[in-house]
Design brief:
The protein is mainly α and about 160 residues long. The protein has five helices and no strands. The protein has one domain.
Length: about 160
């Protein structure tokens, strides 16, 4: 056990290895897969799979599952960029914003199912403009979280 009360210094960022390409690629592949599932849920007519004139429960559920996979893939990909370095407070806040944005999107999208929307059960759930706005707000929080997770590095001054 270390009894020294001084914190250990951060490693020199110029000596760090580049991020693992496999981990970054894996995160990108998961993100693209999630985006495809998200688009299938949001616009199934683009693929010829639209069987209903309204946005139903299954369509919203697929959209939210795709958004969740995008969040996980983006988290894994951006976390790989921090290889060997301690994350900043902004990056930690970004991770929490990604999760919070997803929770906001889920509760906004499933408001009728949870009994908080305009069409409570046993009526048929209706995906309305307020729910769409809630999902967009959640997506904005996810995007802001991803931006905060990017590891910006200061350039070394040449002497």
């Amino acid at each position: 056990m270390n009894t020294d009360s001084t914190p250990s210094p951060l490693p020199e960022s110029s000596l760090q290895d580049p991020p693992s390409r496999m981990r970054v690629r894996f995160g990108l592949v998961i993100t693209v897969l999630g985006f495809f599932i998200f688009v299938v849920g949001a616009k199934p007519a683009w693929f010829g799979w639209d069987n209903s004139p309204v946005v139903g429960f299954i369509q919203v559920a697929v959209l939210l599952v795709g958004l969740g996979i995008v969040c996980v893939g983006g988290y894994l990909g951006l976390l790989a960029l921090w290889k060997g370095q301690e994350r900043t407070i902004a990056a930690d806040i970004g991770m929490r914003l990604v999760a919070t944005g997803y929770v906001v999107s889920v509760f906004a999208g499933m408001a009728d199912v949870f009994g908080m929307g305009t069409q409570t059960l046993p009526d048929v759930p209706f995906f309305g403009p307020l729910q769409a706005r809630g999902i967009v707000i959640g997506q904005a929080l996810v995007a802001l979280g991803f931006l905060l997770m990017i590891p910006f590095r200061m350039k070394q001054k040449e002497q």
